[in-house]
Amino acid sequence: MVKAKDYMKAAVWEGPYKLSLKTVEKPVPGDGDVLIKTKAVGICGSDLEVFDGRFKQSVPPMIIGHEGGGIVERVGPGVTKVSPGDRVIVECLLYCGECINCRTGMYNLCSQHKVIGMIGHDGEYAEYFVAPERNVHILPENITWPEAGLIDTLAGPVAGIEKTNLHLGSTVAVYGPGPAGLFFCKLAKLRGARKVYLVGTRDYRLAFGEQYGADVVLNTKRDNVEEYIHEDTQGQGVDLVIEAAGAAQALNSGLEVLKKGGELLIYGVFGGGPVPVDIQPIQINELIVKGLNGSPLKYPDTIELISDGTISVKQLISHTFKLEDVPRLFSTGFISSREEDYMKGVVLFD
Ligand SMILES: [Zn+2]
Ligand SMILES: [Zn+2]
User: Options 3.40.50.720, 3.30.365.10, 3.40.190.10, 3.30.70.270; which CATH number does 155-291 get?
Assistant: First the structure.
């Protein structure tokens, strides 16, 4: 007897600026897969890049959303780590596990990588989604569903700060006071930074700086950032610049405030195409430039940092939404224009 198919609601992306709520087939977990009843999904800046077609690796039609978790509904054959009823958070990077990058722990650079809700795999703005067991992490009871929507946002900076040469007494300038930039400030202090400068353009975001460990908060609309940092560092510049804004202006300013031999970490997404950057300082001052894409192996540490209270994420949740709201949030530009002092939104499910 053929079993009748089950259906669910999902936000389906069908090409640039085309996102709508549809009724689609509920996914079935294959070998090693877990079917999850969605409870929370963080809204990410990358979702916007997919929505308007800037992220070229996304191919429609596809359900988007990639920073979520929920309750295990069913497991496929061979799954042993989790069982129905477990609360879990899901890491979105899919990888082969066999290429040289995977075998050396850099599965974010897998030669056959996919990303849930972005590249080649349906995402999480849906009542249910599937993910491989190895991407699924148990969520401690004391992390609420809205907070779970920020685990991915914190995991990137956790991976990033460990890629840098930051040491006791370092000076750091973080550009971009969004959730990731604020987490970078906090993590830099935890790792021993002596002084952290947070640079941005929106006062309501910069206002979180102090809580996240920034010693100096600078607004480019008011302050001469380059002059201030040079004077404050006795003309040396900072040891480390973290670009978490994805803006050419931030990148150029960051290169100006770096000390000779200093290090630049690029985390901001520049999906819009080439930007004008003066690269001469990189050569003249022997600067070290690093990129960061994803957070390989960092979910367990990130979950601990939130669970034990080392890093608080909940004050950054400015908005919560329902699945039905998702198409409108993107099509009206609510998220992209950061209306109503938008910081981080989480889509919650019943
Ligand atoms: Zn994301
Ligand atoms: Zn691989």
Answer: 3.40.50.720
